[in-house]
Design goal:
- By secondary structure, the protein is α/β, with parallel strands linked by helices.
- The protein has helices at residues 3-6, 26-40, 85-94, 108-114, 136-152, 162-165, 171-174, 216-223, 248-255, 269-277, 294-301, 316-321, 332-343, 347-361, 363-379; strands at residues 13-16, 45-51, 59-62, 65-71, 74-76, 79-81, 99-103, 120-124, 154-159, 179-181, 203-207, 232-236, 261-265, 281-284, 306-309, 324-327.
- Helix 9 (248-255) links the parallel strand 12 and strand 13.
- Helix 11 (294-301) packs across helix 14 (347-361).
- GO terms for molecular function: glycosyltransferase activity.
- InterPro entries: Glyco_trans_1 (IPR001296), Glyco_trans_4-like_N (IPR028098), Glycosyltransferase_grp1 (IPR050194).
- Its EC number is 2.4.-.-.
């Protein structure tokens, strides 16, 4: 036995994704919650990401997780160019019992190869989606090829739900692997005062990235059909640091002189529960497929019904709980009608819907599933890696 093979891996799991803290998205929140949750359970966890902001440290420990960041030399649309990212991820992966790749990711195929004999677990969130542009089709083709390479090397593939996975361009590959549907970790927040409530009228809300694929232009158009002067539309989320660019300017123009529409900007964690408490209905009007919609599930857990596009993945929380309504993607009139209906739900129905959502989408179930999967995959590793 060689000295290299005799060493124990430095990490129980390495999680690899392009963007990590302090960037916020549904994908990064899944990775962060899994990483920090497993670290709290005593697992040795590393995260490798790109250093998308020069001021972020190249290496730090955050809530028990060792975070490694590779420098970025350029940006292309929603992506970044980081020549050191894949080699860094491969090196840390080889020092781990298992490596978890969060897809889509441009470098996924390369990282899967550079991981050596470390078992790969892929978490497929979504197919890559890009707004129009001359280079968009080529970028999608390149990323898809890389994702396919990673899936082909994966010991297991995690999806948020089979409904979404079956509609993926990568479904033919995923169904040939060991496929595990694991709902993303949704935080059960403590009830809070309705900090954003202004009037007695219906309050409709969205929380997420202010990006083109979220379909927020349809939400603004639908809300403007509400005649009630006391109605409010609250659009919360970062619009200053959105990969690929924000659409907040276009939304403000679309909102025109309607004084009932509010853009709150980024909400700190301690503001989120108060935001949900202010709502009568949550809206998820995305025009591109989403694999689940964590924000809608967290709102539902606090008794706020959701109106979501009837599309694979994002419709699952509503179909599983019956707590809300679906509408044909892009249908403004159907969206407006559904919002008016669910905003009028009585307290008893809200309480029942909240209980059902909490039973289905809490964090512990997700962490248990990932912990068991990583342990099983890591136990199969052949040659042990060297420390980073």
């Amino acid at each position: 036995m060689t000295r290299r093979s005799a060493r124990s891996p430095r990490f129980d799991a390495t999680i690899v994704l392009t963007y990590y803290l302090p960037y916020t998205s549904g994908l990064t929140e899944v990775a962060r919650t899994v990483a920090e949750g497993l670290a709290a359970r005593g697992r040795r966890v590393a995260v490798v990401a790109c250093r998308h902001e020069p001021g972020h440290p190249a290496r730090e420990t955050v809530n028990g997780v060792e975070v490694f960041r590779a420098p970025v030399v350029a940006r292309v649309g929603r992506g970044v160019v980081s020549p050191g990212f894949a080699p860094l991820a491969g090196r840390i992966a080889r020092a781990s019992r298992v490596v978890n790749l969060h897809l889509p990711m441009l470098e996924a195929g390369i990282v899967a190869r550079l991981a050596g004999d470390t078992p790969v677990v892929a978490t497929h969130h979504d197919d890559v989606w890009l707004a129009g542009g001359a280079l968009a089709p080529l970028q999608v083709k390149v990323v898809d090829a890389s994702v396919a390479g990673a899936l082909g090397r994966s010991a297991a593939v995690v999806v948020n739900n089979v409904d979404h996975a079956e509609h993926s361009r990568h479904w033919p590959l995923m169904r040939e692997r060991r496929l595990l549907p694991i709902a993303p970790p949704c935080r059960e927040r403590e009830p809070a005062p309705a900090a954003f409530r202004e009037t007695a009228g219906p309050h409709i809300g969205f929380l997420g990235r202010i990006a083109p694929e979220k379909g927020l232009h349809h939400l603004v158009d639908a809300f403007r059909t509400f005649p009630d002067p006391e109605a409010r539309l609250l659009i919360a989320g970062d619009y200053s640091k959105v990969a690929g660019g924000s659409v907040v300017g276009a939304l403000r123009t679309r909102a025109g002189d309607d004084p009932r529409i509010r853009f709150t900007g980024f909400l700190h964690d301690d503001q989120v529960a108060g935001f949900y408490a202010s709502l009568d209905a949550f809206a998820l009007p995305s025009v591109a497929e989403e694999s689940f919609g964590i924000s809608q599930a967290e709102a539902m857990m606090l008794g706020v019904p959701s109106v979501a596009s009837d599309a694979p993945g994002m419709r699952v929380p509503v179909t599983e709980t019956g707590f809300g309504r679906l509408f044909p993607p892009g249908d403004v009139h159907a969206l407006a009608a559904a919002l008016r209906e669910v905003a009028a739900y009585p307290p008893e129905r809200r309480a029942e819907g909240g209980r059902d959502a909490r039973a289905r989408y809490g964090t512990d179930h997700c962490l248990d599933a990932y912990d068991g999967l990583f342990r099983e995959a890591g136990a199969r590793r052949g040659v042990q890696g060297a420390p980073a």
